[in-house]
Amino acid sequence: MISHDAWTTWWPRGLVIGLLLLVLGLPFLFRPAQKPGQLVLEDSPRLVIATPHNEQIRYEFARAFNQWRLANGQPPVIIEWRTGGGASDLRKQILDQFARSAIQGREDDGIGWDIVFGGGDFEHNILANGVTVERNGAKVQVPIAIPIELPPGMLEEVFPVPTIGGERLYHPEMKWVGVVLSAFGIVYNNDLLQMSKQQPPTTWADLADTRYLQSIALADPAHSGSIAVAYNTILRRHGWDEGWSILRRVFANARYFSNAAGQVPIDVSAGEATAGMCIDFYGRYQAKAVGQGRVGYVDPPFMTTITADPILILRGTKQRELAQQFVTWLLTPEAQMLWQARQGTPWGPEKFELRRMPIRRDMYTPENRAQWTDEINPYLITRPFPKDMPDFYRSVALLAHAMAIDVHDELVAAWKAIVENPNHPQRQKMLELFDAMPEELVPRWPSQTMKHGARRALEDPGSPTHEETVAVLNNLAAELRQRWRNPDQMLRDRLAWTLFFRENYRQVVALSRQ
Q1: 3-state class of 62 per DSSP?
Q2: What is the spatial distance between Cα 87 and Cα 245, in angstroms, rounded to a whole number?
Q3: Burial class of 478 by CB neighbour count within 10 A (0 to 12, 13 to 18, 19+)
């Protein structure tokens, strides 16, 4: 028999424990019943997908793929997402893991991931090249992507033309294939623009306007592959000298550099910044989410780039057949419709309108577009880069850090000194110091006339100096590639160039006080 004292001591504790169990059990007691065929069991097939895609994309495509499998008499799949940072961060992680395995000769074992979904063609091209490791004193190139196998005739059906604006839609060896298109543009807050009596920006150079001082939101290209593409686009459209001149002023107008590209449109919509650069669907999605015309988005006309956002299958996958099926399904009209369709339409999303551009050219019909969220057709507005124009993507993150991110306080101080002293007798010298580049980053122009006319020559293939202008820029790009074959040299350059830029910015401030 329990004594009275013991009872008075233990019954409150028992009551608390009982109530706790009741609270924990209620969700299981009253949870809605699973619909027939929707139950995913622990022993269901499992696909591990690394992706920089946001939660909305992950949700809608996991749901739609499982619905498609069920409709075709197959069990649903457990999709495990790996989302460690932006595209550049994921690429570095994958290469590091494969390099460790390859050094031990275990690359066929894989890294436990099956697919890389999204992140841009540049990042996927790096992955497609594999990793270089040293074995027995010799350097060996180890492939880490396996060729994608599509059903007969599907490649020609999906990609009747293999490029858009000169950019490839799939890898020549099928180590990746594009599944959706990406563009890069400007997101802006209409309320803040109206308060300052400014017109919405329409092109990259608008963001260099001094009225945007400390009101631009940007992402760090060392973490975000999408924003690195946007910066690279400016260099390839405007040329090296003019491109960095624009970028430096935009950087000087920046409030911050976020590690997450998706933060930019969120902060713009919240009024934390007036405008920012972002990938197209981030901007369009935020504009729709906020509503009432408070947020706008624009692809700078003929000054952006439209590229494939790919998918690839990693070596060592234990789910090769399932991975191939997922890739093939992404290229079907049903899955392509999901990128752009409105809620409530056939093949449309359940919760989130994704507002991205299908990669299949044959999706852009009046019937399909009547069900879409946006009036877009990238195949009608794209423009190729100047013929033989080099790619500067690899230099973007290093220079952005040395020029701006690592010395942002000094950069802003120098820009303010120039902006606030329009009639200063040393203004020209201040501008020269502000725009100066280390010797290794200066193109070898035959004349100042060619330097200042570079953009016009680039835009006009018939210009008598077009080929020579492109050749000068290709020489610079080749010299940088050769210079950075040793990764240690990149670190040395970043340090030396950071000191160079910081000293110049300090000199600008000192001159302004004279």
Answers
A1: helix
A2: 26
A3: exposed
Q: How far apart are CA 10 and CA 439, in angstroms?
A: 81
In this structure, are residues 297 and 185 in contact, taking their beta carbons and an 8 Å threshold? yes
What is the number of alpha carbons within 13 Å of residue 118 lying toward its C-beta? Answer: 24
Adjacent-strand bridge partners of 1: none
DSSP annotation of 363 reads: G
Running along the chain, 514 residues long, what does each successive block of 10 average in pLDDT?
Answer: 50 52 43 40 86 94 97 96 87 94 90 95 94 85 95 97 93 98 94 94 95 96 89 94 97 94 92 94 86 89 89 97 98 98 94 95 96 90 85 94 98 97 95 98 95 91 93 96 93 97 98 94
Rounded Cα distance between 465 and 477, Å, is 19
Neighbouring C-beta atoms of residue 206, cutoff 10 Å: 20
Across-strand partners of 189? 295
Query: For residue 174, what pLDDT is reported?
Result: 98
CB atoms within 10 A of CB 4: 8
Q: In this predicted structure, what is the pLDDT of residue 117?
A: 98
Task: Tell me the β-bridge partners of 257.
Answer: 218
Q: Are strands 216-219 and 115-117 parallel, antiparallel or unpaired?
A: unpaired
Which residues, including other chains, have CB under 8 Å from residue 187's CB and lie 6 or more apart?
264, 265, 268, 269, 275, 276, 277, 278, 282, 283, 286, 287, 295, 296, 297
Candidates 333, 227, 241, 322; CA nearest to 280 is 227
**Burial (0-12, 13-18, 19+ Cβ within 10 Å), 20:** exposed
Write down the residue that tokens 């006319």 correspond to. Answer: 453
Whole-angstrom CA distances from 345 to 65, 291, 337, 356 are 17, 20, 10, 16
- What is the C-alpha to C-alpha distance for residues 205 and 184, in angstroms, rounded to an integer? 14
**CA nearest 276: which of 222, 191, 212, 371?**
212
DSSP secondary structure, 206-247, as one string: GGGSGGGTT-EEEE-TTT-HHHHHHHHHHHHHH-HHHHHHHH
In this structure, are strands 307-314 and 216-219 parallel, antiparallel, or unpaired?
unpaired
Partners of residue 163 on adjacent β-strands = 168
Two tokens, residue 62:
């996991």
Q: What pLDDT, on a 0 to 100 scale, did the predictor assign at position 315?
A: 97
Using CA atoms, how far apart are residues 116 and 128, in angstroms rounded to an integer? 11
For residue 225, which of 233, 213, 215 has the smallest C-alpha distance? Answer: 233
DSSP code for 407: T
Q: In angstroms, rounded to a whole number, what is the distance separating the alpha carbons of residues 358 and 164? A: 12
Return d(Cα 371, Cα 499) in angstroms, integer.
Answer: 54
Pick from 472, 335, 483: nearest CA to 395: 483
Please give the radius of gyration of the chain, using alpha carbons only, rounded to the nearest integer: 27
Tokens 């007798």 belong to: 425
Cβ burial 370-384 (10 Å sphere, 16+ → b, else e) = eebbbebebeeebee
State how far the Cα of 25 lies from the Cα of 483, in Å rounded to an integer: 63
Q: Is 0.70 surpassed by the pTM of this model?
A: yes
